[in-house]
């Protein structure tokens, strides 16, 4: 039996989908525990590329159970579309389960997300994915959310949806915004409810039964630690607990079961959306990384901001997640660089910081203190074991792991399932 939590250790898009897909070889159950379709997890198998937003990345293994846990906010229309898209490509979704306790993203949440972003001044914007994530979690905490179990009783669901939609329409109208056509929205929601009904389960029970039966369980984190609503660069964060602790509340499994925490980490850093980014490279250096790493959002297509590896932020992330194994991705993206840099400390107003400050306003003032290492200047995308890596690449990875205080478990040298090796 093994219970492993896998999380992003930076600002998301570290390559979680790819690593999950590799690890699911030996796994009976994969569980998403937070977030929603703000996530975009890419899995490449052979010449096929898939981008998953809500469905766990274990869906490509025919015997693996895939759970959308109670901690998510789920857009029923988006979930139906994603399921249909996979089925069209020959991937079965019969092993998918949606928690009856998961909260639903309703059309008014998406409008509210866009409206709130539109009202924020430059410098205050979050740069959300506009998928309605924040407003849906707000309603959950405010105890007026709609849960997946309500899809099982259409008459009750219609009453609750209409009541909430009318409330939101009054807010939109007062703000001079477009309002929802409630009847038209209802028709779409009703169809999605009928489609999703067979997949709605008491997943808390399923997860606990699997754990008691000694199954191998893998939790799939979305986003990254620095986007965690408690531990991230607040307020420039998402609205859920992306760190490993969220796996328990978002699934109903006790922390007593968890053995390992895998942190997926890019060999450099990216961020999509607004907020501080201590090692961001502006100009041609950042552009070169974006090009080499094909750094464009898997959900929104936005160009990702790129920069050097930030060991201060990543060490903090390893600490709050309890990461004991690293999966380092995208090493190949650095192959052509004559030198590579690791940020080992921050200089803020002339003072040296070894630890990441809590205040985002300070993070904007960071001057990174770099350690520079020689680049390896040769291709690593065909390398299939540690010993075959160039010495300089090994040195870079060893130093990175030492700085963040975790061991390397996996190295990834390309987007494909095959371009991965374990240590
Ligand atoms: P996630 O959100 O953490 O699952 O990551 P995304 O899928 O949003 O972004 C990661 C991107 O990098 C995807 O396009 C992957 O196919 C790609 N990728 C993953 N690992 C590697 C790697 O080791 N090398 C390269 N070049 N690309 C990778
Ligand atoms: P995966 O799982 C990268 C960012 C958005 C924005 C902030 C809040 O693919 O790593 P939200 O829509 O969640 O309210 O937006 O969080 N963000 C992500 N950035 N990868 C993601 O997911 C993200 N999900 C949200 O860009 O800055
Ligand atoms: Mg992504």
Give structural notes.
The chain has 423 residues and is an alpha/beta fold. The chain has three domains: 3-101 and 199-261, Adenylosuccinate Synthetase, subunit A, domain 1 (Adenylosuccinate Synthetase, Chain A, domain 1); 104-196, Adenylosuccinate Synthetase, subunit A, domain 2; 265-422, Adenylosuccinate Synthetase, Chain A, domain 3. Helices cover 31% and strands 21% of the residues. It is built from twelve helices and 20 strands. It has helices at 16-23, 76-88, 107-119, 133-141, 154-174, 182-196, 203-212, 246-249, 284-293, 311-321, 360-363, 391-404, and strands at residues 3-8, 29-32, 41-45, 48-52, 65-68, 73-74, 96-99, 103-104, 200-201, 217-220, 260-266, 269-271, 305-307, 309-310, 325-329, 339-348, 351-353, 367-374, 407-412, 420-422. The strands form five sheets. It has a ten-stranded mixed beta sheet, sandwiched between helices. 6-O-phosphoryl inosine monophosphate (IMO) binds next to helix 4.
Summarize the structure.
The chain is an alpha/beta fold and 423 residues long.
Estimate the helix proportion, in percent. Answer: 25-40%
Structural class: alpha/beta
Identify the CATH class of the largest domain.
Answer: Alpha Beta
Question: Roughly what fraction of the amino acids lie in strands?
Answer: 15-25%
Total of DSSP H or I helical runs spanning 4+ residues: 12
- Termini separation: 21 Å
Sheet with most strands: 10 strands, mixed
What order do the strands of the largest sheet run in, or round the barrel if closed? Answer: 9-7-5-2-10-1-11-15-19-20
Mean pLDDT: 97
Shape designation: globular
CATH topology of the largest domain: Adenylosuccinate Synthetase, Chain A, domain 1
Low-pLDDT residue spans: none
In CATH, the architecture of the largest domain is 3-Layer(aba) Sandwich
Q: How many domains comprise the coordinates?
A: 3
CATH superfamily of the largest domain: Adenylosuccinate Synthetase, subunit A, domain 1
Cα-atom radius of gyration: 21 Å
How many DSSP-defined strands?
A: 20
Bound molecules: guanosine-5'-diphosphate, 6-O-phosphoryl inosine monophosphate, magnesium ion
């Amino acid at each position: 039996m093994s219970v492993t939590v896998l999380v992003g250790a930076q600002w998301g898009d570290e390559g979680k989908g790819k690593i999950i897909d590799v690890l699911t070889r030996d796994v009976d159950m994969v569980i998403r525990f937070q977030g929603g379709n703000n996530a975009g997890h890419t899995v490449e198998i052979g010449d096929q590329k898939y981008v998953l937003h809500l469905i766990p990345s274990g869906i490509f293994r025919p015997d693996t159970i895939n759970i959308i846990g109670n901690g998510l906010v789920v857009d029923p229309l988006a979930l139906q579309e994603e399921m249909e898209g996979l089925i069209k490509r020959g991937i079965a979704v019969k092993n998918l389960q949606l928690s009856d306790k998961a909260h639903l993203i309703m059309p008014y949440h998406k409008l509210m997300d866009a409206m709130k972003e539109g009202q924020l001044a430059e410098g205050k914007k979050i740069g959300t994915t506009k998928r309605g994530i924040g407003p849906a979690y707000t309603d959950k905490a405010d105890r007026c959310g709609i849960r997946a179990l309500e899809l099982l009783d259409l008459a009750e669901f219609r009453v609750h949806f209409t009541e909430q939609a009318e409330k939101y329409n009054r807010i939109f109208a007062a703000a001079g915004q477009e309002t929802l056509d409630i009847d038209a929205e209802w028709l779409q929601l009703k169809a999605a409810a009928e489609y999703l009904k067979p997949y709605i389960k008491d997943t808390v029970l399923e997860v606990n039964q699997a754990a008691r039966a000694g199954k191998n369980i893998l939790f799939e984190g979305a986003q990254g630690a620095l986007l965690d609503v408690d531990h991230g660069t607040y307020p420039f964060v998402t609205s859920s607990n992306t760190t490993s602790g969220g796996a328990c509340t978002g699934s109903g499994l006790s922390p007593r079961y968890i053995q390992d925490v895998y942190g997926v980490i890019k060999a450099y850093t990216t961020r999509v959306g607004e907020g501080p980014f201590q090692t961001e490279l502006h100009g041609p250096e950042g552009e070169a990384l974006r090009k080499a790493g094909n750094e464009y959002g898997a959900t929104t297509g936005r160009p990702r901001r790129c920069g050097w590896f930030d060991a201060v932020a990543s060490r903090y992330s390893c600490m709050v997640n309890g990461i004991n194994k690293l999966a380092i991705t995208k090493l190949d993206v650095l192959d052509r660089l004559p030198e590579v840099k690791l940020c080992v400390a921050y200089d803020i107003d002339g003072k040296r910081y070894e630890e990441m400050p809590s205040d985002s306003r300070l993070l904007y003032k960071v001057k990174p203190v770099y350690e520079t290492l020689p680049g390896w200047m040769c291709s690593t995308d065909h390398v299939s074991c540690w010993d075959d890596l160039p010495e300089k690449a090994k040195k870079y990875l060893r130093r990175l792991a030492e700085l963040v205080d975790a061991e390397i478990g996996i190295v990834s040298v390309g987007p494909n399932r095959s371009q991965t090796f374990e240590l």
